[in-house]
Design the sequence.
C-alpha cells in the first residue's frame, strides 16, 4: 500500500453499485433492408450484394444494407446537381434557414428514437447518445440555420460569398449522426447540395435522418445518402460532378483521398486521426482531473478522434493520480448500451476489437504494464474491452505514437512545463490536447505552446457548435463548427 492509499479510508464498494437493469424501452421501427436515399426517395440500389449492419453489443445483424455502386453514386450526384442548379443554389438564405430550423426541431422531436437506434447500431451507451450525440446534432442545425441569411457577415466586407456546388461527404462510425450533422448543416446553410456516405458499420441513424429530411419537406436531391464501404466512398470523392470533398476518418484514408483528388480543382477539408495529450500538473484539482482524464479517454469507448489517449502527469503526483484513476475506473459500469446506467458500451465492430486488443498486446510486448485489457469480466456476446491503463511506457512505444481508437490510456510523466510541452508535441498528430492546473498563468502558457487544433483547460471533450474544431499536421486541415465552419463551403472572395 502506498502513502496515498494509507491516508484514505478504503471503502468496500463490492455490491454497493449493483443497480437493477434500467433499459431504454422506446420502440424504434427498423426495416429489414435499407437501400439508399436519392432525390428525396428511398431507393433499392443497383447492386445485389447487401451487407449486414451489426449490433456490437450482441454481435447480431440488425438490418441488411445495400452496397452503393458507381451508378448509384452517379445518380445521387446528378440529383444533387439538379437540386443545386434549380432550387437550393438559388434559394434566398432566409428560406434555406427555415428548412434547417425544421430539421433541428424534428431531430429533437425524434431524439429518443435516434438515441436508441444509434446505441443499437454503434454500441455506445444511451446516456451518451441521449445527452450528447443527438442534442449536439440538433444544435448544429440550429446554429447554422442562424447563419443561412447572414453569410455576407461571415466573409471580408464587400464580398458576396457563393456556394461551391455539390459536396461529396464521407464520415466515420464513431459519431454517426453527429458527424452527419457536422457535415450537412454548414453545407446546406451555405447553399450547397450534398451526397453523403455513412460508415459501413453505422448507417442506420442516417436512414432515420433521411426520414426527418422528408418530414421537413427538404426539396428532393438537396441531401442524398449512398450506403456502402470504402469503395463507394472512393467512387463518391472521385466523381467528376463533385465540387468539394469533406472527409472525416483515418489519416491513411485521408491521404489516399488527397492523392486521388490532387489536380482536379476539388476543394477539400480533412478531419483525421489524433493522439491527444492530456497534461496534468501537480497543482491541479486532482479529483476533477481524474474525471477529466476518464472523460478524455473512456468517453465513447475511446472511439474519439480527439481522445486524450496520452496522459502526461507531473512526476511528484503520478503514483497517487494513477491510483485514484484506477479506483474510479474500476467502478465504471460496462455492459448493455441501452441500459441508462451503463458508462462503457461495446467496441464498434469485431474488426476494431481485434485492432484494440492487438495494440494492447504490442504495448505489453514493448514493456508496458497492462491494467485491465481485453480479458476479464465482460458480457459473453458482442465486442468488449475493459477500460485499460498502460503504465511504464516510453515516448517511442507504439502505443504512445499510434492512434488506437479504443479505451486505452498510456501514462507518461514529466518534471517541468517545458518537458511536458516537448513530450505532448512529440507526435505526428495535432488534433486536441488538454491541460490541468489551478494556476491560470501556467494554463495559458502551456496551452499556447501545445500544437493542437483544440486545447481544453481544466476540461476535456467539450463541444459547442459555435466553436471551431479541426486539426494540424497529420490530423488534417479545415475547421468544422463556428464561423470557420462556413468558409470551406463558400467561394467568391478568396
Ligand atoms: P476510415 O477507415 O478512414 O473510414 C472513414 C470513412 O471513409 C468510412 O465511411 C469509410 O468507409 C470510408 N472510406 C474508406 N476507404 C475509403 C476510400 N478509399 N475513399 C473514400 N472513402 C473511404 O476511418 P474509421 O475507422 O471509420 O474512423 C476512425 C478514424 O476517424 C480515426 O482515425 C479517427 O481519429 C477519425 N476521426 C476523425 C475525426 C475528426 O474530426 N478529426 C472525427 C471522428 C473520427 P467504411 O465505413 O466502409 O470503412
Ligand atoms: Mg452497426
Sequence:
Amino acid at each position: 500500500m502506498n502513502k496515498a492509499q494509507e491516508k484514505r479510508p478504503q471503502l468496500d464498494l463490492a455490491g454497493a453499485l449493483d443497480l437493477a437493469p434500467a433499459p431504454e424501452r422506446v420502440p424504434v421501427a427498423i426495416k429489414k433492408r435499407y437501400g439508399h436515399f436519392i432525390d428525396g426517395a428511398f431507393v433499392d440500389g443497383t447492386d445485389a450484394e447487401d451487407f449486414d449492419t451489426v449490433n456490437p453489443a450482441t454481435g447480431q445483424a440488425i438490418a441488411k444494407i445495400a452496397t452503393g455502386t458507381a451508378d448509384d453514386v452517379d445518380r445521387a450526384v446528378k440529383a444533387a446537381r439538379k437540386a443545386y442548379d434549380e432550387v437550393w443554389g438559388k434559394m434566398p438564405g432566409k428560406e434555406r434557414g427555415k428548412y434547417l430550423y425544421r430539421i433541428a426541431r424534428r431531430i429533437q422531436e425524434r431524439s429518443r428514437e435516434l438515441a436508441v437506434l444509434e446505441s443499437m447500431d454503434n454500441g455506445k451507451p444511451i446516456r451518451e447518445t441521449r445527452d450528447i450525440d443527438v442534442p449536439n446534432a440538433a444544435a448544429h442545425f440550429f446554429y447554422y440555420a442562424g447563419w443561412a441569411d447572414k453569410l455576407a457577415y461571415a466573409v471580408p466586407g464587400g464580398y458576396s460569398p457563393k456556394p461551391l456546388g455539390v459536396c461529396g461527404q464521407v464520415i466515420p462510425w464513431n459519431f454517426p449522426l453527429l458527424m452527419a450533422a457536422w457535415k450537412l448543416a454548414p453545407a446546406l446553410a451555405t447553399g450547397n447540395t450534398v451526397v453523403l456516405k455513412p460508415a459501413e458499420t453505422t448507417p442506420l441513424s442516417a436512414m432515420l435522418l433521411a426520414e426527418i429530411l422528408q418530414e421537413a419537406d427538404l426539396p428532393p436531391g438537396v441531401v442524398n445518402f449512398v450506403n456502402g464501404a470504402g469503395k463507394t466512398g472512393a467512387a463518391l470523392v472521385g466523381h467528376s460532378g463533385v465540387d468539394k470533398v469533406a472527409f472525416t476518418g483515418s489519416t491513411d484514408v485521408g491521404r489516399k483521398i488527397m492523392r486521388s483528388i490532387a489536380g482536379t480543382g476539388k476543394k477539400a477539408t480533412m478531419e483525421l486521426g489524433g493522439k491527444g495529450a492530456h497534461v496534468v500538473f501537480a497543482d491541479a484539482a486532482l479529483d476533477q482531473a481524474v474525471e477529466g482524464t476518464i472523460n478524455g479517454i473512456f468517453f465513447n469507448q475511446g472511439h474519439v478522434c480527439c481522445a486524450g489517449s496520452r496522459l502526461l502527469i507531473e512526476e511528484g503526483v503520478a503514483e497517487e493520480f494513477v491510483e485514484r484513476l484506477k479506483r474510479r475506473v474500476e467502478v465504471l459500469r460496462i455492459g448493455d448500451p441501452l441500459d441508462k446506467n451503463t458508462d462503457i458500451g461495446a467496441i464498434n465492430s469485431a474488426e476494431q476489437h481485434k485492432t484494440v486488443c492487438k495494440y494492447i498486446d504490442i504495448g505489453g510486448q514493448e514493456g508496458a504494464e497492462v491494467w485491465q485489457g481485453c480479458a476479464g469480466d465482460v458480457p459473453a456476446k458482442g465486442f468488449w474491452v475493459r477500460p485499460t491503463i498502460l503504465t511504464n511506457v516510453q515516448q517511442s512505444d507504439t502505443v504512445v505514437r499510434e492512434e488506437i481508437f479504443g479505451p486505452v490510456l498510456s501514462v507518461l510523466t514529466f518534471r517541468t512545463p517545458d518537458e511536458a510541452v516537448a513530450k505532448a508535441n512529440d507526435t505526428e498528430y495535432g488534433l486536441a490536447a488538454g491541460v490541468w492546473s489551478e494556476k491560470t498563468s501556467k494554463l495559458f502558457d502551456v496551452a499556447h505552446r501545445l500544437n493542437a487544433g483544440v486545447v481544453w483547460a481544466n476540461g476535456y471533450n467539450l463541444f459547442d457548435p459555435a466553436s471551431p474544431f479541426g486539426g494540424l499536421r497529420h490530423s488534417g486541415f479545415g475547421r468544422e463548427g463556428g464561423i470557420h465552419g462556413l468558409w470551406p463551403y463558400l467561394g467568391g472572395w478568396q
Summary: The mean pLDDT is 95. Residues 277-457 form a domain with the Aldehyde Dehydrogenase; Chain A, domain 2 fold (CATH 3.40.309.10). Residues 53-54, 121, 201-202 surround magnesium ion (ligand 2) (CB under 6 Å).
